[in-house]
Every structure is written in structure tokens, then in C-alpha cells.
User: Fold these one by one.
Assistant:
Number 1:
Amino acid sequence: MTWRRLVSEDLRELETRRIQLQDALDAERSSQERNEAGQFATPAALANEIARYALQLHEQSGVSFLEPSCGTGSFFSALLNQLVDHRIECAVGVEFDQRFAKAADSLWGGKGLRVMHADFTNCAIGDPAVSLLLANPPYVRHHHLSATQKKALGEAVAKQVGLRPSGLSGLYLYFVLLSHRHLAPGAISAWLIPSEFMDVNYGLSLKRYLTENVSLLRIHRYDPAEAQFSDALVTSAVVVFKNEPPTDEHMAEFTFGGSLPSPRVVHRIDASSIDPATKWSRYIQGTSDAARGSAGRVLSDFFKIRRGLATGSNTFFILERADAEKMGISDGFIKPVLPSPRGLKLDVIEADQSGWPVLPSQLALIDCPEPIERLRESNPELAGYLGSADEKIKTGYLVSRRTPWYKQESRDPAPILLTYMGRGKGEKHPLRFILNHSRAVATNVYLMLYPTPLLQKYLDTEPDGLARVHKALLSMSADDIRDGGRVYGGGLHKMEPKELAALPAAAIVNLAPELFATDGGQLAFF
């Protein structure tokens, strides 16, 4: 039987059976178990989209195919469905989960796919070297890899491609790097992986591989508001490269949104200018390093940036102010704290005469340095409340490391805060800068911004300087914010302190160009 007859007669029935088997096998494991194993099945439409695009780049008519972590064989099925001017000379699928390996073999073993029940990171698939690789590797976070596994994987990568991955790398990164040994010269690889590698520190080794070892052809990042996997909290990207050294004239495409054949945004970047050490989201946005650095100053010149307080148990340590007063907790053992961003709609927080925020509901954070023996005498009501805490609270990681366990981290109120996570499309900002006139502190769902001496010089001479700085921060575009942070599935954006610190600060510089262009700033992270 020819491959063409197989496509026309059998493939639809086989694909229906494959999806049924996939659903049945997924149902045997809980969502938590599948998350820990990184098992997120590739949607059929997405597999076909990737296979069609990869075949357009495959210059030889004969295909030697490899599908790492093949599951039920979604990419092999898509490959058969997309064959027009190519023929499959050999095909291998590797799968670690015996249940899926058995399913793939039952479906495709008689159709030319040799299914190996093995760990792709240390198996030998034999000859010939492959000319086409399509993969959706397991998205296993580094927390679920043992120190022994990380060491073995790191040593294997160092031996095979001369790179040393970070210990924070997810398993998918090792899959990409360790696939290199199986690739024939000129082979086309297309990987469906989380887009976070473009912007996080542990992605450096993969970005170096894509710029130094092979020719990067394209990275397509799907719109985070249109998550490709309903049960994965990540944004997906397709990374396509050719197994040949990059040339001086080579151009790489960075695309966004829509589909792989019809993206909404396209940027072609000179491959020699792509820096592995920078955030690659800027190439998706079409923002060059030179443009980002044109202002000279970044936010760390003007602010010390700290995370908000991590209480260890917000539900126990944070009370309604009225409830705390009714219980008899002394004012000296509580301090005002801001509600979560969801419950805070204001961009400017005013204060009452006592410094508490003017909000419909005022929240109080328990913060007491006295030992429990003394507290039973000075404030027995608080001592009684603390005695009601269950062991789970008192033995929690953060709480158990404090003395006394109900003493909070030291934080001064911050005049400006940034929401740590949020959503926003188009012109809508995903994160919010908030001006805080109160003495309320904030929890770790915020970043707290404190003026450096450089900025304080300006504030000391301008009565409304803080309001002007806040307005300057609000003038930053939504793209500036999105480009500086990271994004997860469903359009969830997040900003880490170092990412915020690196954002360009042209709007603040423009408030006092002579002062800010000549004086030195300070850099601080906590």
C-alpha cells in the first residue's frame, strides 16, 4: 500500500481512533499527575499546521522522520495527512510512558512508525540520521526533576553540544538540545514548546544553541489569550530551525498571533544581531536593543525595587481592621496593608489622618515582635487569637523560620507600587502602577518601589514631584510593560523585580533632563 492510498483510505479512521485513545489514557491520570509528567497532548489542528509548514522547508523528497515524546503519534498522523510531494523512507517515535507507547504502536506500527518505549534523552534511535523532527516535548518543570536527573542531563548536553544548561531548566529544553545528535545535515526541526524560554535566565543555553549551533528559521509565539492547551498555564511557541551553521546573511523570522501560516505580526531579524543574553520577546515586538536603551536610564536608576511581604498565611495574619479592633488587638501590633489588586480599583491611594488608606474596607496585618509569654500579659486578646492558629500555619516554610513566628518581614510603605501579575490586551495595560499616599504596606502580589537618592533629589525640590513621576510611569505603553515581563497561557502577564528594573525610563528622564542625565543612579534588588 502506498502512503497516498493510506492517507486517502485509512487516515481519517486512524486519527479518530487516536483521539479516542488519547482521551482514554488522559482520563486515567489526574490533572496534577499529567502536569507533573508534562503530558499535554498536541491538538490535531495544531499538529497539522506545524507538519505542513515544516514540510514546505524540507528540501529532499525522501523524509527520515523522528517524533520524540510521541504520545499517541499526533505528529506522525499529521505528517501522513500533509504528504504531497514527499515520501516517508523511515519513521521513529520515542515514548517514555509505556501506555502511550503501546497505543502508538497499535495505531501506527503497521504503517511504518517504529515506536520505541524509551527515554529520549539517553536512547539511541539508530541510523539513518533524521531529516525531519516534529515534537511537543514534555513540559516538566525543574521542580519535578531530581538533582541526579539534572546532573546527568546537564552532562549529556555539555558533551554533545558544548553547552551547560541552568539547573532551573525544564525538561523540554534538554529534549531540544539532546536531539542534535540525531539530526542529519540540513535537517528541519519544529518544536512546540513554552515561549517562556525567550525571556527567562534558564533559556540562555537554548538561545545560544539556536544562534550558534544551527540556523534559526522562525519563532512563532501564539497569542497568550488563545492558549493552545486548555490545561497548561503556559504560552506556546513553535521554534523551527535547520541543522546548519548560521551565515552572515541569514535572517530569522519572529512572528506573533494568528496561526503559523497566517501570523498577525511578522518581523525579520538579521540573525547575527540576535543576542542570546537578551529577552527575545523584543524581537516579537520588533523592538531592538538600541531602541530600548536610547534613553540611557532604566527604572533601577530611580527606584529600589522590593517584593511585597510574604506573610505565610494571608487568611490568618490579615484581618478587617474593624474585626481586629473588635477582638481587642492593640494598635501597636497591627499595621495597614493593601488589599489584593483585584480588590483595589484605584490608581491613587489617599490617606486618612492616621495614615490608613481611604478605602471602603481597611485591612490590618498582624505584626508583633513580643514573645508569647509577654504578649499574654500586654495583649491577651492577640495572644488568644495566635493560639487559635493550627499547626499547618505555624509549621509553614516562612512562618516556622521567624522569631516569633507571628513577626512579619520588615517593609516600609512604598510611595509607588506595581501589581505583580495581571491581564491586558491591545492598549490595556496588563499591570498597574499605583501611587500610595498612605502608610499601608503591601503583600507579595505587588512590587514596591522606593526612590533612590537620584530620584529623591528631584522629589525634594518638586512639591508635586511624586505625582509627576507616577504620571510618567503611567505613560509607559502597554507594549513596554508586556515586553519587559513574561507571559503565560490565557494572557497572564508577570513582572519580576529585575525585569521591572531593566525597563527604559525615558519618561522619568524627561521630567528633569539636566539632573537625570548627569547624576549617577543606584542599583538595588531584594
Note: The domain at 3-214 is CATH 3.40.50.150 (Rossmann fold).
Number 2:
Amino acid sequence: MKNYILVLLFIIINHSYAQVNRNGTLTTIVDSLIDAMPASADNNDYQTPSGANLTSWGNVIQDILDCNYSTANSEANAFGYTLYNLTDTSQTPEKTYYLLLKNTASTNYWGSFVYNPLPERQKMFIQCPHPLFDTNTGYQGIRIFQNLGARAYIVSGTYRCNNTTETTCAGTSTVCGGTSYRISDLAHNVDGTFQKSTEILEPGISGLIVIQPHGFNKDGNDPDLIMSNGNVNAPTTDYFSALKDNLLIEDNMLTFKIAHIDTAWTELIATTNTQGRLINGSDNPCNKSASSNAGRFFHIEQAYDNLRDSESNWNKLSNAIAATFVSDPLPVELVSFTASLYYNFIRLEWETATEVNNYGFEIERSETGDTRYENWKKIGFVNGHGNSNSPKYYNFVDNNPAFGNNFYRLKQLDSDGGFEYSDIFEINVESSSDILLEQNYPNPFNPITKIKFTIPEAASNNDVYLKIYDALGNEIATLINGVKKRGIQEIDFSGEKISSGVYYYTLTMDKFRETKKMILLK
């Protein structure tokens, strides 16, 4: 599946973006979350989410995957979380991430989720279930996520032994002083956010790869790394052999045990890990190990010395994973998607920067904007260009929009059957069916361009506003502010005193608002 680059247009409508913007450094933020999480055993800070809470968490993850960020944020607020749109200012160029984090006042210590809308390795999901017990693995995991450009990262919200209640899932363990795993141990629990997030991403991202960095106390006869797919059977594709070779390039003194190769070795091979059971196809991940090895779950136990004891040593695993799994950047780059009202029809326009394996776009319309599939109807299809390294422009005309609110989105389809949704664009027909804002001419322009629009009889007594904005949404000029007569109106705009670039002009009249893009080239 593919995701998209979306350029923020200054249009005051209900796009689906995260509601809370934030600047900072991703690793610093995640490190501080790990530092602040409840670190005590038997303290019962962690409480299992209810069935309704887990359903809501799953809905939020699905909305993030579908780029419906404002919907995700609204539902997250209901269970004490917020979705942040983070601009990581420490990277060049700056990167955007979406962070699903617990509110300060919330007592739902269910963990934190990070999403990369423009991944270099779009199938990779980094999971850190034991950031405190397996020392430094949470810090290591977020750096693996960032360094590799992975799709998603999740980290637990408490110490694995925090809650005294034992899970009902099959598996024995004495790590917390009992005989079974605790409900606060999210690698061995199907009623937690790790399992729910994996359940959503597994079908949503074709060929999902889950990597869990763990840690153990090495005895004299132990290897430095114990690696397993959560299954002793051999996978069809053996990535662990390649990972071992790449780790030896990083440090040729490391020693290994690989579960499906060193079959006599039985310690710490993750056969009771519920995420591993899920990825490997178990029909009951809580109580039943999988009979086959999908080769897409990577449980990596690391000794402390030379692997987890410093950031430079954390990078050994990060570098080896990067060498094992090649980059697969998103092949379809959508840079704009807009809708304009012309009398009684709506024209959709969108642009791509690059395309790989692009079969085409299904155009979907809804009268509610609800992200559930049954509320969207396919109203057309436009063929893609397959493979392209140059900008491509598309349009589609909806000749039969509904009165009132109309919501549109694109479903981009790969030739291999994968798909991804664009953001949602909303436009209202009822109060604006006779108003026409035309494209400025010439466009591009230097320095004068004409902006033309029509005012119908019904709107002739309303105040009219025509304003110019730059690409960041800053108001540059007000060309009209007051009542205008009905009929065709035309006004010149001069860019003599501003620099070259992309600008937007917005016409506002009663409940009508429309925006168009223009380009000044000097």
C-alpha cells in the first residue's frame, strides 16, 4: 500500500488533519515518555482497556492509516489520548510524524504509537513491549524507526510487571515472580494496544514486517543474540541469515542462535508472543502457537554489553536491519487534491509528482464524511500513468452532486491490488450552485493577472471578499471587501511587490467559499 504527500492548501473547510500541531525532536519526545512511565512492579497503574476502548483504539489506528487524522484525534480524545502532528525540526529536511500519546491527566497507560506518513520502508512496524525491563530497547527502537524510515512504532506505557493480574493467554514465565505473564506485558496479551494495532496494520499493509528488539541477561554460555520468527519452522524467505551476516559486518565478535536453524536451542524464542502468533497465522493467538512461519515477525533478544549499553552500539542492529531490508519508498506522491464548484457540477483536480505501478484512481463521494466504507460510493475512475518521474495532472467532473455537503476522496490503486486513500475534501452545493470563480488568467503570470467571478441574483446583496494568501496561509492582500452587483466581475492583481511562488485567492460570499491556486513567475 502507498501513502501520500499532501500539500496543505489554505482553504477553510473540513480537511482531515491532526488537530494538535507540535514542533520538536521525535527521539527526545519518545525518550521522555519512556523516562516518565510507571516503572514499578505490582503497582497496578496499568489497566486493561475495555472491549469498547480496544475497538476505539483500532478505529484510531485505521483512521491514521487512511489519513483521516482529525477523525482519529476526535476518537482518541474520548479515551484520554491526543493525536499530534509533529514537525521534527532536528532533521534536514524537516519530517512530519503523527504521535498518538496519552494526555497528562489520563490514567490509561496503554502505550504510545508513532506513524510515518512518508516511510522509506513502508512495511516495517517497530514494537518495543519491554522498554524498561529490557534496558534501552525503547530508546533503541525509536532510533531504528527513525533511521530506517519505518512505517510505525509502538512502545508500552508501563513496566511489564506493573499489574499483578496474570494474563489468560498460554505461556509460562517467572520474570515477574509468578508462573505466567502479566496483563501489563503487552507482548503476551491479546487485550492490549500492541495486539490491536497489529491486527489493524497486518491486513492494511501488505507484507507487514514486525520487529521487536528485546534484551536478556547473558550467562557464560549464552550467545550475544537470540533471534526467532516466533516459530521453529523454517520460513520461505530467511531474513535472519542475512541479518546475522550484516550484524557481523558491524561487529565480527558477535555470536548467535537462530531458532529455525539452531533447533536444539529453546530459550527466548518467542513462541508465546501473541503478536508473533498473529503474524504467523494462528487462529487463536492468545492460546495457540502457529504451525507455520510467515517469516515477517522478528523477535531479537540482545545481550546488554556491546549491543544495548550505548547509542553507538544500538546502531549495530539498526544498521544491520537497514542492510537486510532494502528501502521501498512510497511510489505514488500526491501533491495536491482540490474541488471547485461550477454552477451545478463539481470539478475535482489532483496532481502527482511521481508514480510507480499506479493503476489509477477511484473517485468516492459521501454525504457524511464518515470513514466507514459503506458510507462511500464510487462515482468514477481515472487511469493512472503507471510509472512516471514527472508531474501528472488529473481531473474528474461530478455532474450530479448532492445538495448540501459533499465529501470526496481518492482511492489510489496499484497494479498489484494494493490501495491507499487520500485526504477528504468537503464542498457545499446548496448555497453556491450559481456562483462561479474562474481560474485566473494568465497563470503563471508576471506581474499582472486577472481574476474573474460571477455573482448570481440571490447573492447580490451579500458582502463579497476576495483575498490573496501565500503558501503558508498568510494574507497578502484584500482585493474586494463589500457588496458587489450581480453579474460578471473582473479584477486585476499585481504581484509586482511580492516574490515568485505559489499563491492562493479565496472568494467568500455568504456561505460560499472557494479557493484557487496561482503561480507568480518573475
Note: The chain has three domains: 20-324, 331-428, 431-522.
